[in-house]
Design a protein that fits this description.
The chain has 24 helices and 18 strands. By secondary structure, the chain is α/β, with parallel strands linked by helices. The strands form four sheets. The chain has a nine-stranded mixed β-sheet, sandwiched between helices. Strands 12, 16, 17 and 18 form a four-stranded antiparallel β-sheet that branches. The chain has a three-stranded antiparallel β-sheet with strand order 14-13-15. α2 runs antiparallel to α9 and α18 packs antiparallel against α22.
């Protein structure tokens, strides 16, 4: 196979041609698990190639000297990993290829060898050897030039993601679920880091921490590090971002490990950044517990259930409350994205230590799902009332690989400047896109110019056609319970008797007791009584039966059954009062109203309800669990409401003229057909 270089996409296509040598011996669903680790191996090999001989010489010299050989070899490679084997993909030989390749892998440093363990690469090698294609595949990859000076880190990152997307398509898996398109990555990174431009300028060499709890292949981490590296053009000592990440899937975790192994910090070139990339579920196994970071980036899966993590999450919510990550509340089990929102908020560095900022990509549902007092609403409430939401950007549709739904970029911060305090900036960026060739559901891209426009709009923090600075209380409301008096009479008739016999309380009576009650009720047939008559009637009937030597009971359940059977609502009747003289509410007329937090609930009732329902009143027992005030607090961010533009309907005259034109065109076509 001839050598090949180029963009990530073209390299991916070229490398994928190895599949031609796998057909017949392997299922197409296995191709990705073979090709991806070989690609990673070749990249590591190309990076180490300039220092191979020096590393082997140093290893031979110092391996038995009783000193830290690991440190010496890292200094020799100028990377935090090494390989001491005499083999490479190009010299494995055709007779003992498997043994030699296994030796090659075994002589990587531990932090590199783990990459191949996560792919179960040893079994893959055995299968390739048994199929007789191992040597061919090794030679193929030996011919691919992946040296850093030829293929940049960014191109390699694109290459990994192209391969993963293709692999996912082959096995019909959601491999793209964890992949954030590059244009979205660039936008999120710019919105996250640009506000600290002055901080970086005034503090050359500033060290800050970076965290992605759903790091995938490391796209966010890599892009953010590249972003601050560009400051080296302006400063002798550029700022440093120390990356941290956690990933659930072993294969993508391995790719991210590789990317971080190949990253070096100018201020600490021997530091192994891959140690900060952990494997496991972030929600149930947070491997950075109690740690905080200056910057956080994340694109959690959209609409993914969190039932696998539910035991740990529920326990943390109940036991740790606000000392844990999930104190404010829990969303419904079918969508865990808001758990990641809370998780990131808990990871923001404390203001006294420089504060923290976060950018997270979410679907539209976290803006509005769940009513007042629901877990989702309480999460929004906590974030907004603690002034952590700095901005929300509505992204164009059709910019993700596997979904065309609307998506939003949330910016969190615990170090807002004065003009943003107690306010949230909403940016409608849905119109900032350019068309591209279809990549799954991705038909649009936010190009460099459009990204700069969005960042400028964000930086301005002003009201415009596409930007709104909103007081956070605008998103809040109190859900009040509106009651109306019960107006009911009791009419004793045959219809009521039939209803009574359907009540469970009646059916539980013995036939003898049923007859006693029927005889008593028939003496009142055709009569109309006040609502409270049932208790008087029941008491009299019980005493009358007792005088006749029979014992019957009339509990609350039975009295309620009488009321249900004979009660007739009378809109013009007097309100029913209880024993204390308080108005009894009609449960069938109960309603709820959402009153903006910025408005007094009684003023709202007087303006919006009482003109239509003069007897309505507020249930003062219906209160919020947190502030104990009347009405339960809810928050929702109705994004579209703030950018709605009224478009008047077309005039009927114009519509009619258009219809007549279409009719004439159809008639002409029909005439032509008839003539033929």
């Amino acid at each position: 196979m001839a050598e090949q270089t180029g963009s990530g996409a073209s390299l991916a296509d070229f490398i994928w041609k190895n599949a031609e040598d796998l057909w017949g011996d392997f299922k197409h669903t296995d191709f990705g698990k073979i090709i991806l680790p070989f690609t990673l191996l070749r990249r590591l090999e190309c990076v180490l190639e300039p220092t191979r001989e020096g590393v082997r010489e140093s290893h031979a010299t110092f391996k038995d000297a009783g000193i830290d050989i690991d440190l010496i070899l890292r200094q020799a490679t100028r990377y935090p990993f090494y390989n001491t084997s005499e083999y490479a993909l190009g010299n494995l030989g055709s007779t003992k290829t498997r043994q030699n390749l296994q030796d090659y892998i075994a002589h990587f440093s531990d932090n590199a060898r783990i990459i191949f363990e996560q792919f179960d690469f040893s079994n893959t090698v055995i299968r390739l050897d048994k199929a007789g294609v191992l040597f061919k595949i090794c030679k193929n990859f030996a011919g691919v030039d992946l040296h850093p000076e030829v293929v940049s880190d960014r191109v390699m990152s694109n290459l990994y993601e192209h391969l993963i997307r293709r692999f996912g398509a082959e096995v019909n898996e959601g491999a793209e679920d964890f992949m954030t398109p590059r244009d979205v990555v660039h936008l999120a990174t710019a919105l996250l880091l640009d506000p600290d431009d002055a901080l970086f300028e005034s503090n050359p060499g500033l060290i800050r921490t970076l965290y992605d709890p759903t790091c995938g292949t490391g796209g966010f981490l890599t892009d953010a590090m590249n972003h601050v590296a560009e400051y080296s053009n302006r400063f002798k000592v550029p700022p440093v971002l120390v990356p941290h990440g956690q990933e659930l899937e072993p294969e993508t975790h391995a790719v991210c490990l590789t990317s971080m192994l190949l990253r070096t910090l100018e201020s600490d070139p021997g530091r192994d950044l891959s140690k900060n990339i952990r494997l496991g579920s972030t929600l149930s196994n947070d491997q950075f517990a109690n740690e905080r970071f200056h910057y956080c980036l994340s694109n959690p899966p959209f609409g993914k259930k969190w039932e696998k993590d539910s035991d740990v999450v529920n326990t943390e919510h109940k036991e740790k409350k606000y000392d844990g990550r999930f104190g404010p509340g829990l969303p419904r089990i079918n969508d865990g994205s808001m758990l990641f929102l809370l998780h990131l908020a808990s990871k923001l560095e404390l203001p006294e230590n420089g504060g923290g900022r976060a950018a997270i990509v979410l679907s539209g549902s976290p803006l509005f799902n769940g009513g007042a007092s629901s877990g989702e609403s309480e999460i929004r409430r906590w974030l907004l009332e603690n002034d952590l939401v700095e901005a929300i950007v509505a992204l164009p549709t059709e910019i993700f690989f596997r979904t065309g739904i609307g998506t939003y970029l949330w910016i969190l911060s615990n170090k807002k400047d004065g003009r943003r305090e107690k306010r949230v900036q909403l940016i409608n960026a849905t119109g900032f896109w350019s068309s591209i060739n279809n990549e799954g559901n991705k038909r649009r891209i936010v190009d460099d110019d459009q990204r700069r426009q969005i960042v400028d709009i964000y930086a301005a923090a002003e009201n415009s056609d596409v930007s709104r600075m909103i007081d956070y209380r605008t998103f809040g409301y109190r859900r009040i319970k509106v009651l109306r008096p019960l107006r009911m009479s009791l009419v004793i008739n045959d219809e009521g008797l039939a209803k009574l016999q359907e009540e469970k309380a009646w059916q539980k009576l013995s036939p003898e007791h049923q007859q006693i009650w029927l005889d008593a009720l028939r003496r009142h047939m055709g009569a109309t009584h006040l609502f409270g008559w049932t208790e008087t009637f029941a008491d009299e009937t019980v005493r009358s039966a007792l005088a006749a030597g029979k014992v019957i009971k009339a509990g609350k359940t039975f009295i309620k059954a009488l009321t249900n059977a004979f009660g007739v609502r009378d809109p013009l009747g007097e309100p029913v009062l209880d024993a204390d003289g308080a108005v009894v509410a009609d449960p069938e007329l109960t309603d709820y109203e959402n009153v903006p937090l910025t408005e007094d609930i009684r003023d709202y009732l007087a303006r919006e309800v009482l003109p239509h329902l003069p007897d309505a009143y507020i249930d003062e027992t219906f209160r919020d669990d947190k502030d104990k005030e009347i009405g339960r607090v809810g928050y929702e961010i109705n994004f579209n409401r703030f950018f709605y533009q009224y478009v008047p309907p077309r005039k009927l005259h114009d519509i009619d003229a258009e219809l007549k034109q279409v009719e004439s065109e159809i008639a002409a076509l029909l005439a032509e057909v008839a003539t033929e």
